[in-house]
Amino acid sequence: MEADDPHPDDLKLLFDVIPVGKVDRPPFRLSGGEKQRAAVASVFSFDPEVLLLNEPLGAVDAQYRERILGLLDDHDGTVLVFTPSLDLIPKVAKRVVLVGRNGSIAADGTVRDVLTDRSLLESQGLRPPATVRLFEVIVDPDVIPLTIPAARRYLSCERM
């Protein structure tokens, strides 16, 4: 294999996020979601120590959303995600640094501490994630499920 040849793992990654029939298309012939998936695949192919991602799932459909979340979960390095989607945060983060309306740091803490603090979020013009809004009136903030799979597990245990 030549130095410039793609590594087999890189090709697998590319084909995993872009349908085989579209890999040879010029970028202007790809949809927004396909462009975004190609960009994410190209970044992962470098196996960087630090990933800086701005709304990595913004234009991605549900099928590829799970694949990209899997890539993020498998990544060994640091991942910094910039997103207005509070529902995404529990899936990709252990720590949240919330940038306030004025550009200063409004909060820095665990996912649970930040996403269950309704007054903090509202002061920044944000709503808690859907699972937090559903559970905050019926359970203690320390046990609120932060993701839909966690909510399913919680509910299945509660009914027994």
Describe the structure.
Helices cover 43% and strands 13% of the residues. By secondary structure, the chain is α+β, with helices and mostly antiparallel strands. The strands form two sheets. A two-stranded parallel ribbon has the order 1-2. The protein has a two-stranded antiparallel sheet with strand order 3-4. It is a peripheral membrane protein. GO terms for molecular function: ATP binding; ATPase-coupled transmembrane transporter activity. Keywords: ATP-binding, Membrane, Nucleotide-binding, Transport.
List the helices and strands and how they pair.
Blueprint: H1 8-17, H2 32-45, E1 50-54, H3 62-74, E2 78-82, H4 89-92, E3 95-99, E4 105-110, H5 111-115, H6 118-123, H7 130-135, H8 148-158
Parallel strand pairs: 1-2
Antiparallel strand pairs: 3-4
